[in-house]
Amino acid sequence: HPACSPVLQAARGYARPVTKKRKDIPSHLDDLPPTMLKKDYANLPVMSSVDDVVKRLLSLEMASQKEKLKVKTQQLVEKVRRSPNDNGSFEVQVAILTAKIRTLEEHLQRHPKDKRNRRFMLMDLDRRRKMLGYLRRVNYSTFENTCKQLDIQYSPPQPYARRITKRWLVKKALCIKVFQEKQKLKAAERLKQRREWQARARAARE
Predict the structure, then answer these.
(1) What kind of fold does domain 39-150 have according to CATH?
(2) Which residue windows are coiled coil (predicted)?
(3) Are 35 and 52 in contact (CB under 8 A)?
(4) Closest Cα to residue 128, out of 180, 103, 92, 104?
């Protein structure tokens, strides 16, 4: 109201309505046991003799979201890798992308206006679809096993259909004509260069 004092107007400007807390969204990291050690300390032999307090500090109970994601990614990779030393096959890359995509999906459920991470998720989805399409063409049994182990469903990309208009046909005909003329000029230039090379070789032999 214009009759209000400036202090009261400023207080009203800073006031915010009470927002309800959002419900906890289930995460794909919830199935990790809290007593499991972090990835960097899981295979150390000294961990069998350390104190319980130290084990708790180095377990997933005290771990950050990033450290939990490392463990989850390692679990998915172990399901599909071909050998213990396999770190770069298409199956392993699909498993790594799956862990990233699920994390981004949960983040976007909490923050639906985050366009930057939505773009990253769509890019990762496109990369995973291409890798699965390649596996489907080359080795179908490996493709089926990968989808089953990672609990994902492959959807082939929709075929691209362009609406044919008169303007598009004229533009296409012009592009083809320009390309043909350019090829003729290149052919004449190559013929000229070839004749020069032949003349030089003939002069060198004489």
Answers:
(1) Helix Hairpins (1.10.287)
(2) none
(3) no
(4) 92
